[in-house]
Each structure stands twice: as C-alpha cells, then as structure tokens.
Amino acid sequence: MIKTFTLNKIEHQISSPKKGMLTYHITDETGYARTVSGMSILDENKNIKSINPIHKRELPLIDTLSHLEENEKFSLDFSAYNKYFNRDTNKTVNQEAYENVMMMTQEHDDSPMISRIMIIGSGLALTLFGFIMLIMNLS
Fold first, then answer.
1. Amino acid 94: pLDDT
2. How far apart are CA 128 and CA 91, in angstroms?
3. Which of 28, 58, 108, 133 could be stapled to 53 by a disulfide with Cβ–Cβ 3.0 to 4.6 Å?
C-alpha cells in the first residue's frame, strides 16, 4: 500500500533538557489531515539526536518525516511494514508469535496431571486386560 503525503508543518516543543515532542502535521493524497508525533531525544546543545514514535505503527512515517522540510511531498510504501506489524492488535508478528508460544506453554503447564492420569489409567487398563487374557488362557 503506497500512500502520498504532504508535510504541512513541524512543531517541536522542548519538555526537558534532554527530551522534546515533535508533531508533524501531514495531509494524504485524499486531503485527509492528521498529526504524527514522536518523542525527541536531545543532545547537550538541544539538537535532536533521535526521534521515537508515540505509536509503534507510525514508525515508518516518523523515520521518513525526520528527514523532511515543511511543504515537501513524499510517498511511502507500507506493504512490508504491514506484513510485520499487525495494526489490529498493535503488535509485531514476533510479539504475537511469542505470546502464542507462551500461551501454549501455560496451557501445557496447567494440565500435566491430566496427562499423567491418562497414561497411568491406560497402563492399568492394559495390565488388567493382560491378566484377563492370561486367566482365560490358563483355564
């Protein structure tokens, strides 16, 4: 999914000697206006060293916007990022996979007694069947 945007305005507010908030006002190709925000990390001269998005899903926008000037147009292909980041759950594919594995591990840990009882029960049933067959063969 390729989208085209125009960067209308950049606002930077310094909140502490080492942190600030950058707000980018952008408009997409349909005219829809929105803001994208990121926390800025500042050096000793109050120059921006890095920017971290407020919302993880806006990482591609922040990465691109951090290199632009006001009134510049840019296009961004979200296809690769959308494969890696699930917008519905606000998690990456790796986070979801990890949580699924942890859920399966917890489910397994919750019921080891049932599987042990099943193994012991089937062992006892086979033993009983063996005794019955032995008795029937002896008579």
1. 65
2. 53
3. 58
pLDDT value, residue 107:
56
Cβ contact 21:37 at 8 Å: yes
Question: For residue 135, is pLDDT > 70?
Answer: yes
Is residue 54's pLDDT more than 70? yes
- As a three-state string, the secondary structure of the chain is CEEEEEEEEEEEEEEECCEEEEEEEEEECCCCEEEEEEEEEECCCCCEEEEEECCHHHHHHHHHHCCCCCCCEEEEECHHHHHHEECCCCEEHHHHHHHHHHHHHHHHHHCHHHHHHHHHHHHHHHHHHHHHHHHHHHC
